[in-house]
Amino acid sequence: MSEEKNILLPNPSKLVVSSSPHLHKGNDVQKIMIHVIIALIPACLVGIYVFGWSAAQVLIITIISCVLIEAISLKLIGKSQNALKDGTAVLTGMLLAMNLSASTPWWVCVIGALLAIVLAKQLFGGLGYNPFNPALVARVGLLIGFPTFLTSWAPTKSMLSSTHIDAVTCATPLYQIPLTLKNGTTEILSYTNMDLFLGNIPGSLGETSALALLIGGLYLIVMKIVCWRIPAFFIGGVAVIAGIHHMIEPKTTLTITQHLFSGGLFIGAFFMATDMVTSPETKKGAIIFALGCAIVTYSIRVWGAYPEGVSFAILFMNAFTPLIDRLAANKPFGHIVTEN
Amino acid sequence: MIKKKAFSGGVHPHDGKELTNTKNIKIAPLMKEYAVSLSQHIGAPAKAIVKVGDTVLKGQKIAEANGFVSVPIHAPTSGTIISKNKKTSAGGRMEGGVDSVIGPTGALVPMLTISADGEDTPCNDLEPILSWQDCKPEDLKQRVLDAGIVGMGGAAFPTHVKLSPPPSQNIDTLVINASECEPYLSADHRQMLEDTKGIIEGILIIKSILGIQKVCIGIESNKPDAIKAMQEESRKHNIVVTALPTMYPQGSEKQLIYAITGRKVPMGKLPMETGCVVQNIGTAFAIYEAVVKGKPLYERITTITGSPIVNPSNWRLRVGTSLADALTLAEGVKNPDDIGKVILGGPMMGMAQFSLDVPIMKNTSGILLLNKQEVTLYTSGPCIRCGSCINVCPQSLMPSTMGVQIEKERFELAEETNIMNCIECGCCSYVCPSHRPLVQLFRRGKSEIQANNRKKKV
Question: Which of A138, A160, A191, A276 could lock onto A116 through a cystine, CB 3.0 to 4.6 A?
Fold first, then answer.
């Protein structure tokens, strides 16, 4: 049949044979991580703008130590260094730094990286097997081990340039509140809601700007990297509980806005609680998880020993993830009919 | 009417249908040789009734059904049965005068090779039944069996079995599957435009075999011209055409029944439990030809497509045409060094081939070639529990969990996680960011569980 034209056929010995499906969406772990890193950039920039060069130093030191420690761990375990390419170490470093004060000494950053990569991740088997969010394990570890570094916040640049010229450290709004409330001051906060929203307040270098985190979080939702359920039910849950509590006891509690914007709620809800490995997989499970985070966060903030409870709440709920996954597992298509 | 969301989950890959969906079906010229597999259907392979050296006519029965779930096979043209596989036959791989050759699944299948005499002489064993309306359903069903008709959408389940529901089962709806949800394929689409009348008559025959009134044709909304053509023709016969959302796997039996009737097939049960019988559009046409023209099933419409193909096109191919011959019809490939995969069927559920000698079968809806870029070679990583697979699973299963269970060989746990409900559509593997071979794992798990259960029974 090939008289008229030179018809070429494939060479069977060079064909690829594999199981179906033969198409792939083209997404991979590395692309997901790059999107999350992009989403964190606005908050990092605000951190550097508000707290100055020292914030950038903390970021760089933490990221580099995380990547190096991951590389060394992989070498010691005998795994391929290809695992570095997935970008999870960079992301963990970034998230950890954003949870630290801009004034954190370099060696504390390195210890934090060790906790995150070795203790929380590689000892459990690496990516995909860690039950707890590595960055949060490191943050909480440091908070318990070095409370002074973790709770003495660097002042913002605007504070330094004004009257507080010789202030070296200061408390976060959430930390001030219980004290001022106990003293019976009517003026609860010296920060306006706008300061809280934009991030012009003391705190961890990446958590202060609710606006920047919101932009990043919405980017992740629009790009379909994370589902809206966890952030929405986490933040919404805190708002509802705080609103009800404030209605009942308006004098001794904070308003909804102060609760939403003054601590680590936004970074926690958009970037920590949504960590795929440590949060439930189903939609139903995500809602249970997020509401649990909201309740625990509020309880720690109001009745706990620490002024901020987001990290503890997420770690607490991480521990429940396998259980939630089991309870909230999808029912197969067509199951109802058989039960009847 | 157009439904917005028919079933939960599903994916929508680039469908590549534009390569062929405007191309008329061409009739393939006569080939020199046809390798006719005796195992073209689900169930026992047919039993050869001719031997090497025998001469056969076009449409002559060359193998008979071997049991209830089995169908006969017919010669695609007139000629002589030859043995291609001299080496293996000498080595004793010839059973009852039939070669055993590697088939599309990679397993050895009995195969009869016909060397065409070029005359294409028909045998006319099956008489045309022109006034089928006066026929008893039993006789029509017998004709469907005699013509060797199987489900032509992909599964190749013997059609006469599907048309014989137990008397206790109340059947009220015939669902015609014309969704053609597999990317790249347009064989059903073209057939609906070109064989509209025959398809409708086939549907009416099925309707009279089942003795029911309600018929629905489900077509994905990405084929508006086919929807229009079918609507115009079916209106006269009180047949409903439903436009379905373009979402893979819309053509899966359970998802289709749900989209059209709102009924859910109970877990572990057959679709007929919902009172529905599902038939493919190509099968309806084959039934029309078998009854009205007395023509057994020895040819079908196949889409030959993919970016490496010089002339992607739709063909009426005879069963037994080799892949090499079929690709030659489509004028071959642009660059033989840039071929990644040759797939029999669609890209989501088709089978990758390693030989071009593999023949077209009754259920070969397409031959798809992918170039090296389109074939992603990957190393799979650990599950990062993103939940994408759960969101796309049309059966609402937990693919991530099941994947880990099979990897750890915890088959009983996987059975509890409902792995047996997996329809192997491939949505989970398609979206997995860790490139986990989920479907492959599930196939292994399912066969291990089936083997274990069989052992338990014994």
Answer: A138
